[in-house]
Amino acid sequence: MDIIFYHPTFDAAWWLNALTTALPGARVREWQPGDNEHADYALVWHPPVEMLHGRELKAVFALGAGVDSILSKLKANPEMLPEHIPLFRLEDTGMGQQMQEYAVSQVLHWFRRFDDYQALKQQARWEPLPEYQHDEFTIGILGAGVLGSKVAEALRPWGFPLRCWSRSRKAWPGVESFAGKEELPAFLNNTRVLINLLPNTPETVGIINQTLINQLADNSYLLNLARGVHLNEEDLLSALESGKLKGAMLDVFSREPLPAESPLWAHPRVAMTPHVAAVTRPPEAVDYIAHTIGQLEAGNAVSGQVDRARGY
Ligand SMILES: NC(=O)c1ccc[n+]([C@@H]2O[C@H](COP(=O)([O-])OP(=O)(O)OC[C@H]3O[C@@H](n4cnc5c(N)ncnc54)[C@H](O)[C@@H]3O)[C@@H](O)[C@H]2O)c1
Ligand SMILES: O=C(O)[C@H](O)CO
């Protein structure tokens, strides 16, 4: 079996070695421009069109959870990967735990009013504030997939009312499930902390805008862990200005790296990280890909295949 690998920043030597160990007998090589030799599988992130074009591959694996960048490339270059070649993505592979850590720590930060105490400290003010109550801190998770479910699971023991929104209804213990566009208003009503874990699709671009934010509880908080294009950054700034939103924690931005002139950098109620909420963990990713290839070779059903028409 021949496997080609391409990632703009990962240590290819490490991956080649790990894949060869996990798939004994496989010949794994780093793809280089001009390499048109046979391959059965391709492991990629931001691949050049010519890497995949014209190949009769058994499958392609995207080396991340979100497939928006490869799907938009495929839209512009459909010949790059014919529809009959399946595209897989990473499901969890350690990202779930990272999202849990991020979400739990940030929700508790807001719930315990550390943002307020930080602001008071700037003014050298010693001022105990009233406690927030769990029942006034409803947490709504947009996107109830692999990562949304892990975040819900980690938040459950903390006693906050939990709800999720997705295309189809979920039956998760302790989580109220809302499904489809028609139930979005009910999901937003009274939500105090909105956590975004949707995929980037034509239906979800710009979803966190003024209309959506206005339906949240007053003094609410936004945690964007998915993609920058989900959020209208001007509407966010207006909502912070009006007081509708009390704070935002952003990991992803409409332009990355965030341009120096963005007002988000200096905003006192916006915190941020540089798209690191959940990164690909190579050992877990290799295990997952090796297992999936083994299942595909054995003709067994596997999960993680991207539905190109749906966009995720
Ligand atoms: N910031 C980071 O570091 C980072 C890391 C990993 C993933 N992500 C992002 O997180 C996203 C989610 O990952 P995942 O593995 O949980 O994806 P997933 O495909 O398992 O889950 C997606 C969820 O969104 C819901 N959904 C999709 N379109 C919808 C629509 N139009 N209306 C309602 N619900 C809709 C689905 O029903 C599903 O519940 C990824 O697509 C990626 O963009 C970000
Ligand atoms: O989708 C992912 O895996 C991360 O956001 C990296 O882009």
UniProtKB/TrEMBL annotation:
Its EC number is 1.1.1.79, 1.1.1.81. SUPFAM superfamilies: NAD(P)-binding Rossmann-fold domains. The keyword Phosphoprotein does not apply. The active site is at residues 227, 275. Keywords: Cytoplasm, NAD, NADP, Oxidoreductase. The keyword Lipid biosynthesis does not apply. Gene3D superfamilies: NAD(P)-binding Rossmann-like Domain. PROSITE patterns: D_2_HYDROXYACID_DH_3 (PS00671). It comes from the Bacteria. It catalyses: (R)-glycerate + NAD(+) = 3-hydroxypyruvate + NADH + H(+); (R)-glycerate + NADP(+) = 3-hydroxypyruvate + NADPH + H(+); glycolate + NADP(+) = glyoxylate + NADPH + H(+). InterPro entries: D-isomer_DH_CS (IPR029753), D-isomer_DH_NAD-bd (IPR006140), GhrA_Enterobacterales (IPR023514), NAD(P)-bd_dom_sf (IPR036291). Residues 105-277 form the D-isomer specific 2-hydroxyacid dehydrogenase NAD-binding domain. It is found in: Cytoplasm. Catalyzes the NADPH-dependent reduction of glyoxylate and hydroxypyruvate into glycolate and glycerate, respectively. Belongs to the D-isomer specific 2-hydroxyacid dehydrogenase family. GhrA subfamily. This is Glyoxylate/hydroxypyruvate reductase A.
